Amino acid sequence: MATPQLILEPEFLKKLEALSLVSRRAYAGLTKGERRSVKRGASIEFADYREYSSGDDLRYVDWKAYGRLDKLFLKLFIEEEDLNLHLLIDTSKSMSFGSPLTKADYARRTAAALGYIALCEYDRVSVAPFSAGLREPMSPLRGKPGIVPFFRFLETKMPSEGETRFGDALTQYAARTTTGGIAVVISDFFDDTYQRGLKALMARNLQIVLLHVLDEDEIKPPLTGDLRLVDSETGEQGEVSISAHLLGRYEERLQKFYAELKSVSSRYGMDYVRTSTAVPFEDVILQFLRRGGLLR
């Protein structure tokens, strides 16, 4: 039987147990349940105001503000509710690149950490591997009894194979998803249809986090001379002569790639975290994602 220790070290698991996922959105009034967690206090807190619109619940009008300003304002609250964590993991062939830790290994371990946090908090966790399309997803799990089957799925159902058709895969997932929550997309994003897929997820009222993983050799290729390069997904080959000028052009394209992803995430209100397999994945969890507000 698989155990969590096969993916994450026990000492790291203890650190994860002190964390929780944060999904915060403003709404008028109290209509949802509180997060089921022994670590949390009140389920809501005041966030902001907005002007009253016809049909709004008068119970949430701030009458003191009306007395001062002669305008009706509605109180907005921040809700903490039972979360759904959707882990969408790129399992295309390009994710098998890297040594000694592949991008696929890195993605799987990062997903394991996030899912472990959620399950310890009695949140629901779903896993959806994708490549040319959506692959067989893991049925949603909840609570600590789900930890072992969750880790087993990550260890046995995630082979890296096939091309990436980002747009098709995420659109398929969005079509079968009826719950909101947090969607963490872990990928190298080597497919230019990703925007279509992300827009489909947005239509499902999901808070989206993009975790962009590259290998250090993709960031700074240790290449020289005349080489035959092979596309890991399509098998296409090409002869190329590596020069300082060519590496400079590669760096420019890479920076443009980063900027585009960051711009897209900013434009659509998504969180974007870029990392490399040279960065300990523990740092992504304990530092980057906490700093970005996904964890606390």
Automatic annotation (TrEMBL):
Gene3D superfamilies: von Willebrand factor, type A domain (3.40.50.410). It holds the Pfam family DUF58. InterPro entries: DUF58 (IPR002881), VWF_A (IPR002035), vWFA_dom_sf (IPR036465). SMART domains: VWA. It comes from the Bacteria. PANTHER family: BLL2464 PROTEIN, DUF58 DOMAIN-CONTAINING PROTEIN. This is Uncharacterized protein.
